[in-house]
Amino acid sequence: MKKTLLVLSSFLLASNLFYAQKDSKNWNGKKCAVVLTYDDALNIHLDKVIPALNSFQFSGTFYLIASSPVVTGRTEEWRTASQKGHELGNHTLYHPCDGSLPGREFVTEQNNLSNYTIARAIKEIREANQVLKNIDGKSERTFAYPCGDLKIKDTLFHDYLKNDFVAARGVNEGLLPAKSVDLSNVNSFVENGSTAKQMIAQIEAAEKAGSFIVFLFHGVGGEHPLNVDFEEHQKLLLYLKNREKDIWVTTMVNLGKYIQTKQSH
């Protein structure tokens, strides 16, 4: 009897370890997923960030303001970036933000989301999609809310765009399992003045939680008030390269599609 119980206990322990190991690699066969996103179509993204990502053979997601001179004046470079595997995401045509909120003195009357109608917002976002398609030829992409603003007055405008995007990235922090993710408002971690050590700690927290992390960068070595030092960004990329066996570095569109498959099962 004791021998039978011992064998049964060993079997249960082995089974639990098997499933724990299986469950710990639930992000495309890895322990954690990391998405590197960059907002606002800055020159530094083309000049420094994309070459850095390419050197590590990583793909990033770049949320482009479609009317930006950095988009219209450097179209071929963005096309080349897309061909290298980087995602060109939709950050609207003009980057409207809700100027009625506190601390929004920078919002102009023309780009004040609180003055928009739903119809205007949808029209401009779809126009931006067309601009991006003209660059990369792709129909599948993701969206990022300018300033993290989800609503026009009391209406969630993305409700009218759910068939236009695989996912939409918000600005709220949080670590979730795939099945709990709201693809219309995916959590992200806004980085400003962050060190590599701090960002690595965030990845390790995501890995421990069996989750993923979306980094939200603006400036990387300058060109934006929200900025991360280029050398700290390089250290982050080196860490990710050294952890490739366990960490899936992917684009927002690929993460969104992967989560969709998890949520459908």
From TrEMBL:
Endpoints of the signal sequence: 1-20
Keyword Zinc (UniProt): no
Keywords (A to Z) from UniProt: Signal
Protein's recorded name: Peptidoglycan/xylan/chitin deacetylase, PgdA/CDA1 family
InterPro entries: Glyco_hydro/deAcase_b/a-brl (IPR011330), NODB_dom (IPR002509), Polysacch_Deacetylase (IPR051398)
Gene Ontology terms: biological process: carbohydrate metabolic process
Molecular-function annotations in GO: hydrolase activity, acting on carbon-nitrogen (but not peptide) bonds
Gene3D superfamilies: Glycoside hydrolase/deacetylase
CDD domains, per database record: CE4_GLA_like_6s
Organism: Flavobacterium fluvii
Domain (NodB homology) ranges: 32-250
PROSITE patterns, per database record: NODB
